[in-house]
Amino acid sequence: HALAGGEILSKEPALLERHRQYFPSLPCDDLNVLVVDEIGKTYSGTGMDTNVIGRRGVHGYEDLTKPKISIIAALGLTAKAQGNALGVGLADFITQRLRDAIDEKKTFVNALTTGDMQRMAIPCTLKDDEALVAQIRQRYGDRRWMLIPNTLHVEKIFVSEDLAKELRTHPKCQVASQPTSMSFSCGRLALFNMNA
Q1: pTM
Q2: CA-angle at 146, arms to 141 and 148, nearest 5°
Q3: Which of 129, 135, 113, 111 is nearest to 121 (CA)?
Q4: In 4-154, which ranges are continuous DSSP H helix?
Q5: What is the mean pLDDT of residues 10-30?
């Protein structure tokens, strides 16, 4: 849409609200655990879209009121990021695979340029996807989990059974009839098969 200069203040708010309908978002606002298969600038300039996860990750800026996510885990870094892992600090847990993919110099330069140094902090690192999931399950339980491929593409997601029951009535969700269990191949989560 193009607006004349005199129309911007009066018409832009409605256009912005309409545009928000197309932004990626999660179908529920209260999660115990969010597992993100891949992060990186391919999906968001901040590695993980802060509007999708509800975390700003910058001192002096409040997190969003929703969604509220207790634990965020990131499994991998997209190869297209070429090692720039800005946003890794938005996670609570990562895998060694993601950690090994980080180019600290590129990430540092990006963080320094933006001033968002907290977003490059390295979270608790676990051996692989399987160890990460097991550790989080042991400490935080297995209720209200969601697994997404990244924060840009949230059309196909996986959720725990308790969330599946809740989402059956969500107007934008279609829940598969048969549950799928989390399976691993050589320590890698096999749900999305995006990088395997």
Answers
A1: 0.89
A2: 140
A3: 111
A4: 8-20, 50-53, 96-101, 104-114, 129-140
A5: 85
